[in-house]
């Protein structure tokens, strides 16, 4: 019914690696390093405890990026797991605690949509500051939809998010736009 998380992870890493040199460089300055599938203990902690999938290095320093990749349809939304069917803590609950208590969390949240798991052609991508996204969820709960699969997800439309927050830094590309 649902994809194995290890298969999903590997496909997500491959999809983002495919756009790393061209599309990602246009929306994220500096160098981008994947920490997914690392065997380094510190990087594993950053991934598993703080939700950091990529590290950006620029002339100011280092920042973490959380990435979610979906295939098959372009929803143009940020999706954040709110509850798990297992009862385990989700990225939403972890991130809120991390932000409130000054712990490591990804500075940016990125969501990308690809056509399929074979060709992995980018359809759309958006990135925003994580703290802006989470404060939007708190400030505009009426704009956050919920969807259930095996878990509960909060869904934030890129367009509504940009409009209500009057943000200039949300970046969206679609397949019909050139990079």
Tally the beta strands: 9
Q: Tell me, briefly, the overall form.
A: globular
- Termini separation: 35 Å
Which value, in Å, is the CA radius of gyration? Answer: 16 Å
The major beta sheet can be summarized as: 6 strands, mixed
Structural classification:
alpha+beta
Order of helices and strands: HEHEEEHEEHEEHE
> What is the percent of helical residues?
25-40%
Number of helices: 5
Which whole number gives the mean pLDDT? 85
- Spans of at least 5 consecutive residues with low confidence: none
Strand order of the largest sheet: 1-2-3-5-6-9
Instruction: Work out the count of structural domains.
Output: 1
Q: What portion of the residues fall into strands of 2 or more residues?
A: 25-35%
Write the layout of secondary structure elements.
Layout: H1 5-27, E1 31-34, H2 41-50, E2 54-58, E3 61-71, E4 77-83, H3 91-101, E5 108-114, E6 122-129, H4 130-139, E7 144-148, E8 152-157, H5 158-165, E9 173-174
Parallel strand pairs: 3-5
Antiparallel strand pairs: 1-2, 2-3, 4-8, 5-6, 6-9, 7-8
Brief digest:
The protein has 179 residues and is of the alpha+beta class.
Structure, described:
- This protein is of the alpha+beta class and 179 residues long.
- It has one domain.
- 35% of the residues lie in helices and 31% in strands.
- The protein contains five helices and nine strands.
- It has helices spanning 5-27, 41-50, 91-101, 130-139, 158-165, and strands spanning 31-34, 54-58, 61-71, 77-83, 108-114, 122-129, 144-148, 152-157, 173-174.
- The strands form two sheets. It has a six-stranded mixed sheet.
- A hairpin with a 7-residue loop joins strand 5 and strand 6 (122-129).
- It starts with a helix and ends in a 5-residue tail after the last strand.
- The mean pLDDT is 85.
